């Protein structure tokens, strides 16, 4: 019996490790990776590339978006040899489904970008 109990606790631990962190309402962050990101006008901006975790609270606070090259050009952020990635606050996500929808339109993104990678 002890062996079975330790197997169950190991499975629980592994499932915890494999699911990374949660976003506010119980959504697993790993389910967002690779999803398309659109603005409030349904214009495709890019894909979810990663997250930035606040080490003091152990919560995801920034979304890393790999911008489409045309969007990066329109925002004057195009990089020569690498993809353009931006950090935006998780708080500007308005909906998550087949795509991640942001509260802002493409032209308004510069106001909320925390960092460019």
Topology of this structure?
Blueprint: H1 2-18, E1 22-23, E2 27-28, E3 36-38, E4 44-54, E5 59-67, H2 69-74, E6 85-89, E7 93-96, E8 100-102, E9 115-116
Description:
With 117 residues, the protein is an alpha+beta fold. It has one domain: Roll (SH3 type barrels). It contains two helices and nine strands, in the order H-E-E-E-E-E-H-E-E-E-E. A seven-stranded mixed beta sheet has the order 7-8-3-4-5-6-9. A hairpin with a 5-residue loop joins strand 3 and strand 4. The longest helix is centred in the N-terminal third of the chain and has 17 residues. The radius of gyration is 17 Å and the shape is globular. The N terminus is likely disordered.
Offer a quick outline of the entry.
The protein is built from 2 helices and 9 strands. The chain has helices at 2-18, 69-74; strands at residues 22-23, 27-28, 36-38, 44-54, 59-67, 85-89, 93-96, 100-102, 115-116. A hairpin with a 3-residue loop joins strand 7 and strand 8 (100-102).
Q: Which whole number gives the mean pLDDT?
A: 79
CATH architecture: Roll
Radius of gyration: 17 Å
Count of strand segments: 9
Helix content: 10-25%
Total DSSP helices: 2
CATH superfamily: PRC-barrel domain
Strand content: 35-45%
Ranges with pLDDT <50 over ≥5 residues? 1-24
For the largest beta-sheet, the strand count, sense and barrel status come to:
7 strands, mixed
**Helical/strand content category:** alpha+beta
Molecular shape: globular
**How many domains, in number, for the residues?**
1
CATH class wording: Mainly Beta
Major β-sheet strand ordering: 7-8-3-4-5-6-9
SSE succession: HEEEEEHEEEE
Cα distance, first to last residue?
51 Å
- Using the coordinates shown, work out and report the CATH topology: SH3 type barrels
